[in-house]
Amino acid sequence: xxxxxxxxxxxxxxxxxxxxxxxxxxxxxxxxxxxxxxxxxxxxxxxxxxxxxxxxxxxxxxxxxxxxxxxxxxxxxxxxxxxxxxxxxxxxxxxxxxxxxxxxxxxxxxxxxxxxxxxxxxxxxxxxxxxxxxxxxxxxxxxxxxxxxxxxxxxxxxxxxxxxxxxxxxxxxxxxxxxxxxxxxxxxxxxxxxxxxxxxxxxxxxxxxxxxxxxxxxxxxxxxxxxxxxxxxxxxxxxxxxxxxxxxxxxxxxxxxxxxxxxxxxxxxxxxxxxxxxxxxxxxxxxxxxxxxxxxxxxxxxxxxxxxxxxxxxxxxxxxxxxxxxx
Length: 327
Ligand code: AHG
Ligand code: MN
Ligand code: MN
Description:
The chain is globular. It contains eight helices and 15 strands. Helix 1 packs antiparallel against helix 2 (29-51) and helix 2 (29-51) runs antiparallel to helix 3. The chain folds into two domains: 14-199, Fructose-1,6-Bisphosphatase, subunit A, domain 1 (Fructose-1,6-Bisphosphatase, Chain A, domain 1), CATH 3.30.540.10; 210-326, 3-Layer(aba) Sandwich (D-Maltodextrin-Binding Protein, domain 2), CATH 3.40.190. It has helices at residues 14-20, 29-51, 74-90, 151-154, 223-234, 245-255, 274-287, 318-325; strands spanning 61-65, 71-73, 93-98, 105-106, 113-121, 132-140, 161-169, 173-178, 183-189, 194-199, 210-212, 238-239, 257-261, 291-293, 313-316. The chain is 29% helix and 24% strand. The strands form three sheets. The protein has an eight-stranded mixed β-sheet with strand order 4-3-5-6-7-8-9-10, with helices on both faces. The chain has a five-stranded mixed β-sheet with strand order 12-11-13-15-14, sandwiched between helices. It starts with 13 loop residues before the first helix and ends with a helix. The mean pLDDT is 92. The chain has 327 residues and is α+β, with helices and mostly antiparallel strands. The structure holds 2,5-anhydro-1,6-di-O-phosphono-D-glucitol (AHG) and manganese (II) ion (MN) (2 copies). One manganese (II) ion binds at residues 76, 99, 118, 120-121, 123. One manganese (II) ion is lined by residues 118, 121, 245, 277.
């Protein structure tokens, strides 16, 4: 059964919202609240740096590659530093899994939480002033506090998430998150430096008319995906693909739609990463009434075998995902 959903008046500040809803967490509520605040704070710093991206010379590749062999943009590195620093200072996180680091980072051994993060998603879009995002998942630590971090701590399945969310640095900056009691969205008010509740209890339409997929790779889609894309065209659905997962997901959640990153010849397991891209968005999708799968099985049930594992990703309105699964 779906857990009770949080209802709060529009306009309430994020800090107050987090405090008001502390009793929804099973235990250690103060710590999880603090952790959410730390993420919000770091996102404000990243937001400030992002807004300056067109003004100062922090653009372009840094010449290094990230853990999955892609070129890092300077802001990827900066965002990773900002989030890592905030979570280390906050003290609640024992291990941090990041797109930007090969292995997990030990932060505070007496912290009770594990965080997986894509500090900057869609970073190739920064140079052209298109929306980007941050994606995060929060897990409760499995091992005893004070003991060394184990693989069991860092390779938890999506259904073990206690909270997850994203920050969308778009035409306005938004923080959208869930603690398993529905999804709430907050919009950043830059002159006050605060997030305010603007999208309470977000629900995604059960069906939709938007499909988001990079059709440049359509020659190597499997039959199931090829058939589904043909169905979308037959139905005269609208194609929308920003190439920034958070922005594509956000639009589809609000309007009703499906996002697919399937297996392709170049990326036989899809391109997106289970631990710090798909799990968080799958949790949010389900909490808003939608669905997420790898084309067959529920994303949140996949037991990860490595930190940077990729999965095909089908997410969005329930009826569309079901149709895509059935070809
Ligand atoms: P990141 O910038 O963190 O590497 O992620 C980029 C991802 C995602 O945001 C987007 O939907 C997808 O890559 C786009 O990939 P294609 O260009 O292959 O469509
Ligand atoms: Mn990403
Ligand atoms: Mn990234």
